[in-house]
Amino acid sequence: MFHSMLQTLLKGEYLNKAKIAEGGKKLRKNWTATWVVLCSNQLLFFKESKQEAVANLKPGGKSDGVDLCGAVIEWTTEKSSRKNVIQITTPNGHEFLLQADHFPTISKWHDAIKKTVDSLVMFSDSIVPVSPLIPRTVFKLNYSASDSADKNGVKNRLKKFISRRPSMKTLQEKGLIKDRVFGCHMLTLCERERTTVPKFVKLCVEEVEKRGLEADGLYRVSGNLAVIQKLRFLVDQEEELNLGDSQWEDIHVITGALKMFFRELPEPLFPFRFFDLFVEAVKIREPTQKGQALKKLIHQVPKPNHNTMKVLFQHLRRVLMKSQKNLMSTQGISIVFGPTLMWPEFESGNMEVNMVYQNQIVESILIECVEIFGPGGM
């Protein structure tokens, strides 16, 4: 095990790190050059040189780190004046910033950490959760290490136990486990809900417009991740949801959950096959032609994607109408939603250039919103 961790360490790198919150409590930002190592489920931070970090991976060695299970990783331009900054937020309220002077370096780390976080989510989702409605099977195994016959008996009992364990499909059919909302494909979710706009999206939009349009930094400010995860859990369990309840009082929790919903789509709201087409459209210099090209593409996407875009962009236009109160600009909204609503299926070329186009596409659609979708209206 130490050897495998050592191999991982040799792939580490010096990055600038700052811890800006602990347990939800804000901390003074203090950047330090840190040797960063990505392991199977955590990031390890070492203040020492690479050689000393290798020694500290041995039993009894000292290292600081962050558990990536349930964490959220995103690009940020608000938490630091530095360029090329990513933010990692854990369910228990810890927040870290990582930065590198060269974009390809930090982009590589962003993708690797995100892939690790996603794999941890997939692993946890693949395990059948314990429910009070599902009886537990508890058995005691007593055997001698030298008794091969008894070993075979243990193996047989384990095989029988596993074979009798109900499948995920059976549990779903019996209503003991619900289909997820977060991480579900847009078409699948809308088909299941018999709608063309996911119910959760409409609920969030309606609640924000009811009481949150004037909130400072709307959609830019992060909500409490632990509360966002609680909301996500209730949505996935299809519990009766009232976003006006006092536990969701912080509007940034609702906007954070809505952004998380779009980020966790297996295929983004702007489908993969349209990514390059939208990039080519936004390169058109003449504004009217650009607007028409974007409109044509948007009307070609599947109906659930189109209708959800319409609800979301008309909502974001209403957010911008309150810009004097919420201090959000078209560019600010675009920076938040560009990488949230679209990304290429395969990372190729310059990711920094892709991010610029993602932001420009959202910004152009916001500007041409009435022309593309018609007058607003819920």
TrEMBL record:
* Molecular function in Gene Ontology: GTPase activator activity
The residue range of the signal peptide is: none
Source organism's superkingdom? Eukaryota
Kindly provide the name given to this protein in its UniProt entry: Rho GTPase-activating protein 15
Cited Pfam families: PH, RhoGAP
> What range(s) does the PH domain occupy?
7-118
Q: Which GO terms describe its biological process?
A: signal transduction
Q: What is its main location?
A: cytoplasm
